[in-house]
Design a protein that fits this description.
This protein has helices at 3-19, 23-44, 48-61, 69-85, 89-103, 109-125, 129-145, 149-165, 169-202. The model has no long low-confidence stretch (mean pLDDT 92). The protein has 203 residues and is mainly α.
Amino acid sequence: LNPEEAIDNFKRSLRINESIGNKKSAYSALNNLGVVFMDRAINERNDHFYDSALNYFTRLATSADNPNVNTRLLAYGNMAGIYELRNELQKALDSFKEAIALEKNQSSLSFKAMMYGTLGNIYNKLNKPDSALLYYEVGLKAAKDIESTYDQFEYYKALAAFYEKKRDFKAALQFSKQQAIAKDSIYNTEKAQAISELETKYG
């Protein structure tokens, strides 16, 4: 499906599921619409699509009757990411504050691993290095705990840049090496998966 067809399908799904009271599927459609519009904004470099993404993510994040807290957390995180890209840093922080308050009731390592890097970046831009480092370190630990190599790669990359900015070149080099190791691991995993898929298809 191209993006426009995907959007039409998800909008239809949202209308139908809201009309019959199927909230779980309606929330899924909201998330999918937010993701598709966010991807279009990035791929087509059209800021207008971010407005649509924010609309759907906001509806999902503020759905107090949604029992799936993780979907609300990720919606807040995606909102913060969009605001960061727009350099609307206070709005990004406000979104994260809402998410962190929500997460206190249901701790989520996945949320920390996926989103604390963005929060660290925001504090870095606000010239608050202590806060930035705190969230980088907590996020990295969460990424290790859930064994997410991709998220670890992103944290090593951010920490290398962080220490290079501080002119702590020894620490910057250390995290650059860890970044390279994580990158190799991701490549090897993807290569092994591709080979496995070929063997399954033609074996």
